[in-house]
Amino acid sequence: MERNSPGGTGPVHVPLGHIVANEKWRGSQLAQELQGKVKLVFEEGLPLADFYLSSRSCILYVTEADLVAGHGYRKRLVRVRNSGHLQGIVIVEKTQISEQYFSAVQKFTVLDLGMVLLPVANQLEASCLIIQLVQEQTREPSRNPFLRKKRCVLSELSLVQTVQQIPGVGKVKAPLLLQKFPTIQQLSNASVQELQEVVGHAVAQQIHTFFTQPR
Prior knowledge:
InterPro entries: DisA/LigA_HHH, FAAP24, PND, RuvA_2-like. By secondary structure, the chain is α/β, with parallel strands linked by helices. It is 51% helix and 14% strand.
């Protein structure tokens, strides 16, 4: 396998069907679950991300400990978002301990950065998700419209989950809002009057406050 330049910021070479993982994950439960199911290669000094599915697709993994420790993880997300050559998928451990921090990371990742966020309960669940993503990467996007559709579905799912977290919205009102305001930009720019036509005045005021309050 072609070696990557340690500490570089350019594209990482990933053979088809492989995952290139940051050395720090060696010996972890996540790595152990992946080994034997996908071809896993560890590299030291990987730029930006935790796992590379291809030269253009990567995974940033935010652990329970990362969330509890503060906002340090945000710098990594911003670097991937600003890289220009990477499509980053953010996987976040949502546990009983980290749940209180989850809405903040979801808001930052999806609303502020426009990235896909997928919550998992633990590293075992994360490994199943990553294996599924790798299997899709092995199909050529130009010949397999399902892959493009899947990426779209991931983005839509992440968007729906985020809108559900807005105070007063929940699972019932989120789809209704997205039918009228299909993007976060449109939803955040909507007036209270426009919102209340869909969810009523009280919830409309909560949504408006959510987007206009200082972050």
